[in-house]
Amino acid sequence: MTQSTMRYFIYLSLVVACSFLGLSLQAGLPTRLAQARAFAAVAAPPPAPPVQLRLESYLGGRAKAVVVQGDYAFVGMSEGLLVLDVTDKSQPVQVARLGLVATHLDIEGHYLYAASRERGLFVVDISDPTAPQVVGSSDILSNDVEAVGNRAYVLSEGQLHIVDVSNPAAPTPLGLYEANGATDVKVAGDYAYLLVDHGETERLLEVVNIADGSAPTLVGRYQTGYYVLTDLDVAGNFVYVTTTRRHDFDYPLLVIDVSNPASPTLVSETARFRLAGHIVVEGDYAYIFGTDLSIVDIRNPLSPTTVSMLPPACLYFGCGQDLAVSDGFVYIGGLEGLEIVDVSPPNEPSRAGEYPGVYTVDVDGEGSYAYMTGSPGVQVLDATNPAAATVVGTGLEEARGIHIAVQGHYAYVTGYDQVTGAPGLRVVDVMTPTAPLRVGYTDAVTLASIAVSDTYLYAGSASGFQVVDVSDPTNPTEVGHLPTPSQLSEVAVAGDTAYGAAGSNGLRIIDVSTPTSPGEIGTFRPTRGDGSPVDVHGVVVSGSLAYVDDRSTLYVVDVSNPEAPQQRGYYDMGHIDDVAVEANHAYVLGEGRMRVVNAASPVDLREVGSYIFLTPVHGRIDVTGDRVYIAGGDEGFLILRATTLPHSVWLPLAQRE
Fold first, then answer.
1. Judging by beta carbons within 10 Å of its beta carbon (0-12, 13-18, 19+), is residue 626 exposed, middle or buried?
2. CA-to-CA separations, 74 to 7, 148, 233, 370, 421, in angstroms, rounded
3. Is the peptide bond before 376 cis (omega within 30 degrees of 0)?
4. 352 with 342: CB under 8 angstroms?
5. Which residue in 521, 517, 502 sits closest to 562, CA to CA?
6. 23 near 15, Cβ under 8 Å?
7. Residue 442 CB coordination number (10 Å)
8. Cα-flanking dihedrals φ and ψ of residue 520, to 5°?
9. Rounded to an integer, what distance in angstroms lies between the CA atom of residue 68 and that of residue 288?
10. Letter string b/e over residues 413-438, b meaning 16 or more CB atoms within 10 A of that residue's CB
11. What pLDDT digit, counting tens, does each position of 527-570 carry?
12. What local confidence, expressed as pLDDT, does residue 385 receive?
């Protein structure tokens, strides 16, 4: 909004207030106010109606943090803190969600402490887990949090903050310990144990006396050597530290005797694991997660013994983000959601259940369903009731999808085989949403962006622009090809014309009226305000307008004559991940939010709505009616509802005399 427009709205609002109260402009109001009223009555166009975006449904991705109390698991995900009823371990049920960021969690009594680097520390009353309430907060940004008694211990930017939470509504700083390089903290009795990483030169376990919370004091250190320290836990007189080391696959569990806090002593490093990341000690056992879940008997701390190992549901290191143990079950939070393992017989662990995350990288909404691709290759979401959207079918378990397009009862997916890595186009019959079935495949199309229209699929692959006949979905066949100066990062089609985003080679406009012989009929490079040309990375076509972007600015191009496109307007967005268009509105994902731009008048683009995510979400979007679908990768899948609000009531009032 320009300054002149803003002044106009201020003046107009005052005019309306005076009209409503029966006051006269001649009774002392400035002359400029009367001029603004006259201008409003005859000259000003009505502002574009605002669009309200609200979160309708969230299917979590990564479980970044997890703690358990009784029959409830508290899970930190990108768009909130989820509360799951895990009474039935085979079928966890979400019973509550709080809109706060939580990458680190701990519980003390009936309070949960949720911390993150982005938003700080929140104190949540969980006396009723189905209705958690935020009762207090602190702006200390956190790498880790431990709650013990009436104190919270918060690691933040190389400092250990000791916070008095005896009044949960008003967390109060109590003491501070300079802990440069500290990555993790555990508290037991009068001591806090810190893992400190100063790089290759120094990696330490520090022991800090916290008996006087206002004056924490370093009392002992142990130099751990060249191992990277990943996590720790404390039991009795021993600290257990998991480690990794670059260019090695055999990492020890360090057992350090701290019975004399001033002189920590290594007593064992015999138990070894592959990529040990997280550790929880409970009773006689240590539970360690890395590439596997390992259960270690520590009844003799001088000689810990691995009693069992269980491969995780996810296949690579890093899938475990956090670990919790409660009443004979291990809860693993990771890239694929929450996994629950029964360890009541420690030597025979078995999977008991899961609350799966949703990993999606592209989406196409059709009717009341959204079709997503990622891992697995196809997931079908029933969004008949968007507030209770549910994945009802999955297919292409062997594939990791990159792009998806749906037409009729077929989904077309480009991606690669998760085992062999072979790329290709897969055709999936989704007539029965609960049972997607692969019916066709071709390796002629690889990891290309795609669009489908009638019986043809159009792809922008490394070899150029491709036309694929899909009239027989069981046998997709390339029938046309056009070399392009660079790979098309995005493809759109409208009628007999296809459009491709070709980076520094601009927007390529292609006649596909003869599918076997596609031909380029035009090119176009948008320009900034200073006249300099920009690259084209995305394109969406609606009616006679193409919406293209250079990853930072949205440009509207008139393509009513495809051979002579004309730029009509542009709007700086800062950063753009993806764009979708519905009913004269462009929905733009980028900069950690979804924004709505009214494009009814391309020469006068106006931002009319936005939704700010708790955690920045990057991915691809699609809009169907009032539903905005967001495939956010490992941050999960979101549905926003877009509601166009009426013009503000002051417009008719301004016209009254």
1. middle
2. 48, 18, 20, 28, 36
3. yes
4. yes
5. 521
6. no
7. 17
8. -75, 130
9. 17
10. bbbbebeeeebbbbbbbbeebeebeb
11. 988 889 999 999 999 999 999 999 999 999 999 999 999 999 99
12. 94
This prediction has a pTM of 0.82
Count of CB atoms situated within 10 Å of the CB of 454: 11
Q: Give yes or no for a contact between 95 and 83, defined as CB atoms under 8 angstroms apart.
A: yes
Output the pLDDT for position 624.
95
Higher pLDDT, 386 or 226: 386
For the record, the structure tokens of 420 come out as: 């062999």
**Tens-place pLDDT, residues 219-272:** 999 998 778 888 999 999 999 999 886 555 678 899 999 999 999 999 999 877
Up-side HSE of residue 385: CA atoms within 13 Å toward CB?
Answer: 3
In angstroms, the CA 86 to CA 89 distance is 5
* Higher per-residue confidence, 379 vs 41: 379
Sequence letter at residue 231: D
What are the beta bridge partners of residue 236? none
Decide: residue 24, CB within 10 A, 0-12 exposed, 13-18 middle, 19+ buried.
Answer: exposed
% of the chain exceeding 90 in pLDDT? 72
The Cα angle at residue 550 between residues 545 and 555, in degrees rounded to 5: 30
The conformation of residue 389, written as its DSSP 8-state character, comes to -
Structure letter (DSSP) for residue 636:
-
> Contacts by 432-438 with C-beta closer than 8 Å and gap 24+?
432/393, 433/369, 433/380, 433/382, 433/392, 433/393, 434/380, 434/392, 434/393, 435/393, 435/395, 436/378, 436/380, 436/393, 436/394, 436/395, 436/396, 436/411, 437/395, 438/395, 438/396
> Residue type for 17, please?
A
d(CA 539, CA 559): 12
Residues 502, 493: Cα–Cα separation, whole Å: 15
CB 626 within 8 A of CB 639: no
More confident residue, 139 or 646: 139
**DSSP conformation class of 455:** T
Other beta carbons within 10 angstroms of residue 598's beta carbon come to: 22
What is the average pLDDT value for the chain, to the nearest integer? 88
* Amino acid sitting at position 246: R
pLDDT interval class at 4 (50, 70, 90): very low
**Beta bridge partners of residue 174, listed in sequence order:** none
Cα distance between residue 415 and residue 424, in whole Å: 6
CB atoms within 10 A of CB 472: 12
Rg of the chain over CA atoms, in angstroms? 29
Mean pLDDT of 159-182: 96
Q: Which two tokens stand for residue 326?
A: 């409660």
* Average pLDDT for 81-107: 94
Nearest-angstrom CA–CA distance, 300 and 285: 10
Of 365, 370, 448, the closest CA to residue 413 belongs to 448
CB under 8 Å to 338, separation ≥6 — which residues? 63, 66, 73, 75, 84, 92, 331, 332, 354, 355, 357
